[in-house]
Amino acid sequence: MKPATLDHWAAARMGVAAPLTEAAVAAYQLAHLRETLAHARAASPFYRCQDWPTGLPDSLADLARWPFTTPADLQRGDPALLAISQREVARVVTLETSGTSGPPKRVHFTAADLEATVDFFHHGMALFTRPGDRVVIAFPAARPGGVGDALAQAARRLGAEPVPAPLDQPVETMVALLRAERPQVVFGPPVRLLAAARVSACDGGPSLSVRAALASSDSIPAALGDVLRRHWRCELFAHWGMTETGYGGALECGCHAGQHLRETDLYVEVVDPLTGAVLPQGARGELVLTTLRRRGVPLIRYRTGDLGRLLPGRCACGSVLRRLDERTGRTGGHIALPGGAALSLSALDAALFALDRVTDFTAELHRTVPPRLAVCVASPAPLRGPGVTEAVRRVLATTPAIRSVLESGALGLEVTVAEATTCRHGGKRRLVCRPGPVAQWPRAVLFDLDGTLLDSVPDVHRALTVALARAGLPPLPLPVLRPLVGGGARRLIERACAVLGHLPDTAGLDALVTAFLAAYHPCKPVLTTPRAGVHKVTRRLVDAGLQLAVVTNRPGAEATTLLERFGLSDVIEVVVGGDAGPPKKPDPGLVLLACAWLGVPAAEAVMVGDSAYDVDAARAANMASVVMRGGCSAQPVETLGAARVIDGPDDLPEALRGLGVT
């Protein structure tokens, strides 16, 4: 007998006749996609000023012509993505973002959005939950409209009894609750479920039997399914979702061959993380989603940062809903090891959670010389002891990304055991880089972004050409434009008009600035490229034990998005943007803030830039500076007063040696 599917529910929500077909799904999605695009363009201030293609897509594949929306757009919020009035908003979710200086992301939901989530959860959990079941929910449930509350509402609709299991309590407390309630179903984050299962198996208490468990909100370790089957005789169902999807995104059926997408409300693409090109089915890349029925904050081609693939073919359950394979991490979600190897959280999950004694872990790379990987593992109290550290060392020594650098001595390894069954992560689990004391000068290098790490002038030139053409003005040659860039859009337009001999009045200047901003998409580069040698040089500096930061007058979220897009986020520890609080360069405030975040005195850092803004900011901070040719300097770089002048990134190591690097 085939497992149950969500197709009948999907057909009813789509308003099409059962049985559901691929053609019906595609027609429904295209119709709602066109409605969503029209609504977003008409009602959202953000989308209203975007440079979109004319008309509406003729096919789902045609959506690839539309630009992406990024997390930086949600963070910036100016102009706002909100496409309804504030009085129609039922809930606002604020998502703090680590690693940048920008504001948090905010996602607004209407009552209809929240109801759609509960409806999806209701029918999704019906695949493995029955009326009368007790359902333990290990997600936050205190706030109305949150994921835990939505799951509880869905359980009640099904005739099941929800039982909250607060995440701020020890795992042992959750195990006691499971024994007291004897639930048939458990919902929770993957590592929480794994820890609870391993504790229940070794603490001497009565054994547990749970029919089904749903794991969501984080990547799922490969060991979890086997652990739940052995200790709880439990069937595991995987779920993918995030706040931006309205919590529900994709759910595994009883065939356990991929998670069926919530295609009633989402259209999902997979794109190349670097180029943004749409990838064919079966290829692994970044998941991009477009909401189909959300009125409050419609998201058009939103880059989730999650890596995965869409599985080809139809599932054995018979459902026509497309399937998402298990996620394999996030863009920029790895750290660079000596020699250029990349260590990911998923690689450590596979190695460490295969050990029966491990219930959680943290991993930090300390940028000492040589670098040191510090791993702290959590273990159930009855299993803690020296054997844990020995087992962890043995398994890490055979992990491909680590083995060679450990054997060569280029990486040190420190393993400790926590005094609790889980670790404190300060949010979602992630790998962390930490500065360490180094016997060299400088200890840190602060990079400007535009003109130094990236050549973004071609995209500025493209947008300026569009704005000038709308005013009936000729384009500026790219070499003429380069020294005019810097100081913001208005100053750029003023300088360009002066070169052209055009003196617009205030209204005319405002119109040019508006046209430029509408055509310029800072987080969606088309012609921007990394400067030659940037990847090789930054990795070389990291391998030498230096800490790297980016200090830019751009908003921090924009800078972070670009670093991720061009494969530089794994070597940059700190990003300080122009919205961090202090005045922008040439004021020293951003430079000093970057040093504070790195834990390095300004006198032990070097600023690398391409203009007077960078050199003057470094000088005011009592910091040495290196300036590159080929950027956006309005005057000869030799006259700026930097300690060294170089032609490009490849010359930076030699320049730093001349300044004192040993």
Automatic annotation (TrEMBL):
- State the SUPFAM superfamilies in the record: Acetyl-CoA synthetase-like, HAD-like
Q: Which UniProt keywords apply?
A: Hydrolase
Q: Which residues form the AMP-dependent synthetase/ligase domain?
A: 97-289
Gene Ontology molecular functions: hydrolase activity
* Gene3D superfamilies cross-referenced by the UniProt entry: HAD superfamily/HAD-like, N-terminal domain of ligase-like, Putative phosphatase, domain 2
Decide whether keyword Hydrolase is in the record.
Answer: yes
PANTHER family, per this entry?
BLR5969 PROTEIN
Please identify the protein, giving its name as recorded. HAD-IA family hydrolase
Please report the organism this UniProt entry assigns to the protein: Rhodovastum atsumiense
